[in-house]
Amino acid sequence: MDLISEDKISAMTSLEKLRFVLDGVKAGNIVILEGGLTSEEQMKLIELTMSEVNDDFPGIEIGGYPTRKGFLNLKRKTRLTVIGPANMMRTIRKDRDLISAIVSAI
Amino acid sequence: MEEGRRLRRRRKGLLSRLIRSLFFRKATARIGIYGPPNAGKTTLANRIVHTFVDEHEDIGIVSQVPHETRRTMMREGILIDLKAKLQLNPYPTENPHPPSNPYPKAREARAKLKIDIVDTPGLATKIDFHDFLAYGLDEAEAKKRAKEATEGVIEAIKWLDDVDGVLLLMDATEDPYTQTNIVIIGNLEARGIPVLIAANKIDLTDAAPQRIIDAFPQHTVIPISALKGEHMEELYEEMARKFR
Ligand SMILES: Nc1nc2c(ncn2[C@@H]2O[C@H](COP(=O)(O)OP(=O)(O)O)[C@@H](O)[C@H]2O)c(=O)[nH]1
Ligand SMILES: [Mg+2]
Q1: A21-53 b/e with 16+ CB inside 10 Å = b?
Q2: Cβ of B128 and A59 within 8 Å?
Q3: A63, B179: Cβ pair inside 8 Å?
Q4: Domains (ranges, CATH) in chain B?
């Protein structure tokens, strides 16, 4: 699991950020971005992911934290974005509590 | 700098969109149907064409196999005229049960809107060829379908630049609170593209459209069954309000 600080991310351009995330995920890591990605960046990430899906890499899972059911302010940047390899999706689900714990610690 | 330029371009896009919508109301609204695979997008697109154009014309193939639609298909110049339709046939649904809220009578029905309908493959963050093997495809076919499906998703994203409004379809038996739903709504809001959410498959007993209403309280959600034709008039009325 890679926890990436906001400082490290803010020095990168959008494209560098997405490249960095996708490379991490393709290497089998769950990447957690402090500060998160905007919806536009997430859409670009989906597009980039789709162009790189192959027999060994089925794609990604994305989660935004904190998310509370029934309450959502989409305009606000997510505080944390978690991206993982799709074939490790269960791991992300299982680690939901752990990730929530990290979120509240930040 | 690159960022700044992109931002300015987006602002300009928003502004010109606003000006266009205020002064040059387009005669035809181009409506993209988005939503996860198997939400019923093609079923809905076909129903709209069957109802208002020709009951024998299909936009695309409906299938329980995900990613049946791998190319975006457009049908142009569909006149949604509920009044004319209801005068021809006062009971336009196939629903044998009495509807919970009565359908608008012909003289009350005002929905009139000219649209181009764009049936997209929708969005996905993962496409695993193994998933297609379960539907009886052999490995080569499954890999080919997966490849085409990824291209379809990219095409669907690009089409967002060319639509005036979005019908976002969700399967009411599934959890609506997915990151792809959140991402597309966030993008539409940022671009100022009007969106109408349809909670589909309410004919199924485990459908829970209220979950979708609760998840996206800032948006209009219309529960429908694209397959059985339930509550379609309400959808058309709301489309006319939102996309005109
Ligand atoms: N029960 C039920 N099934 C539906 C409804 N709409 C679509 N379906 C079914 O869902 C599956 C996927 O439909 P399709 O239109 O191909 O979904 P798409 O991938 O979003 O285009 C098919 O088996 C359809 O028959 C509905 O309103 N009710
Ligand atoms: Mg389809």
Answers
A1: bbebbeeebbbbbbbbbbbbbbbbbbbbbbeeb
A2: yes
A3: yes
A4: 27-243 (3.40.50.300)
